[in-house]
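Thread: "does anyone have the structure for this chain?"

Original post by V.I.:
We have the sequence but no experimental structure in hand. Need at least a predicted one for the grant figures.
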Amino acid sequence: MYFDSLSAVWHMDGHGFYVWLSYALTFLPVAIMLWLPIRRQRQHWQWIVAEQRRANSRPADAQSE
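Reply from O.Q.:
Generated one for you, tokens below.
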């Protein structure tokens, strides 16, 4: 193994800050790009369900108009 301890992995001969920062700056946009469409889809489904409930709760004469 290249590193002797977890501390060595964390510090990476003084370059650890930049390495872990680059990982974070890569992971964050990817996570956001995965999360936003899922959230949007859930919101759309909630809107569809609410719209169907509103349509079903209207009186019969109001639906024909």
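V.I.: this helps a lot. DSSP finds three helices and no strands in the chain.
O.Q.: and Residues 25-55 form one domain.
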